[in-house]
Please model this.
Amino acid sequence: MFLRSHLFLQGILVSQIAGHGLQRRANPLDKYLQNTVPNGNGPILYYNGSGPVPSINIMSPEPAPLPGLTAGQISASIVQEVVAISTGGLINDSCTICQASLDVLHVASLTLSQDAMTAIMIEICIALDLTSLTDHGSCESFFSGTGGLGPYFAQVLQKMSLATGDMQAFCFYEFSTCKAPPLVDINENDWFPPKPANRMSAPQPSGKTVNVLHFSDWHMDPRYDVGGEANCTTGLCCRFDSANSHLNTTSLNPSLPASRFGDFGCDSPADLALSAFSSMRQNVNFSSITFSLLTGDIVSHDKTNQASEALSEYEETTAYETFRAQLGSTPLYATLGNHDSWPSGFNTPNSFQNGTNAFSWNYELLSSLWQAEGWINGTEHHYGAYAHTTKEGLRVVSINTDFWYTPNIFNYYNYTNPDKSGILRFLVSELLAAEAANQRVWIIGHVPSGGGSAIANPSILFHSIVARFSPSTITGVFFGHTHQDNKQLFYDFASTNSSASSSVVRNYTDLNYDTPLMVAWVGPSIVPLTNYNAGWSVYSVDAVTFEVMNAQVYFANISNTLSWSPEPVWEFEYDARSTYDPLCQWPASAPLNATFWSRVTDTMMKNDSLIEEYLFLATKKSVLTPACVGTCLERSICSIRSSNGAVSDTCA
Model:
């Protein structure tokens, strides 16, 4: 009886606790697993996942699978996304729009085929009306067909990354929609040992000289249309399809008929190009010429949809055979220009596509042409670059400057690597060997490392290299590309960001203008395109130190092409020493080195007439030399004193 009563009372107690009719006493750390606060007729509530509480590892049902999309549907979505980013109005910052669009295309390129990416670019180009960027062609002809740039853009888009600043760099250099990306820190100790104490100055001149010819930017046009429209609005003029939309003229009824001797809006016709060599023989004793330089750009400025690999091969082959015929036994040391490849300005490192290179055909072609003429020994797989010792003992090192050229889209992946191709590592190895052998070096390239055509990171590394090996080992730097007769000064750095024993990192825009180290001679062009006269230079060079002692320039006045007969007329333009040192304050026995030209810029800053004369001579006395006053003159002086892209950006 007692037992039954006890069980009965216990059952009542349990039911009351379970139903919360009776409150169980609890303290804050009571581990009782059920609720003690009454819950009325509600369920028992549990602690610590006890009772019927589902365990923590039970899988929940997934949503329905993503619908399978065809490549066409994915492509359409990509186009819609990029167009919405650009036109939707939710993003007002042009830099963000540009980078976001590129990132969408990058992700798309990871899965879509090259053909699909090309089609996407065409659709975006049409939707956003980007024909102003397609080199006077249609979106279709620019990205596919004869233009065919779509596959190249697809390849670089697949490699690009926000993590290395690739999109920002592309948007800054190609569209000016972003700020310049930050400069990379380059530890000079990883590239070369410190400059030895006995390499701080150049050797003394010998008093003996030889002559060297320098011409650049040949751009002979085998499609030049004599009598065609020379005053066109359709890109390169003097072509069968040239027209002026403002005047409603074509090559059938030209407003300005193209002379067979050239015009300001056109590439070089054959007669103008060949006459340059006639003028060289007339004005210079060829027996005094020890060698000649060509600082790049053979191929004509054809529209993208009218150029081709076959045209580049034809023009390069024809040009070098012509140079051999015209120069005879005089050696020619040439360098690859941005137009001397197809597509124009594009070059890739060998590492870009698993050791294969889409441009190797061009490197092999140029190497074979240069070697066939007996000018050099070989190019050693350095992207058309080479090193060669002349019979006089000068080491000529030619480098492919497309690896810092802004329109080379392959410079916009892994942007923070300043030497993806290894071309600058090749240069350093040559300079170290020359230094050890007490040999003097000329560096020749096409695109100047300063100015608006060089991206910052490779050009600041090049500046560091030139500063390290000048003026003892490097005795001259020579460029082309601008179509002007320019100078570019390399100064030493004023400060470093780090100077620990294991690390030397420069402040690349802080220069010591009291310490000029080297001058780059930017050669005048044969081509008159961009409103300049045609020109070429002859240097008087110390026969032992190989420093330039003087320079003279000859030019053909393109304003007179319709009155010339039977051939173009070339004239003496100026003598550098007498023009920039009229009072003979510079020692006659001293070279026109960086110190000379730095002093010239000092005078320019006090005398507007001198920088104005420099700018007039830069165009080879063109009547179309643009007016330049005030801040324009200041920027022009800054440009002369800028030897890397980062410093050049400060001139704007």
About this structure: The chain is about 30% helix and 15% strand. The two ends are 107 Å apart (CA to CA). The first helix runs from residue 2 to 18.
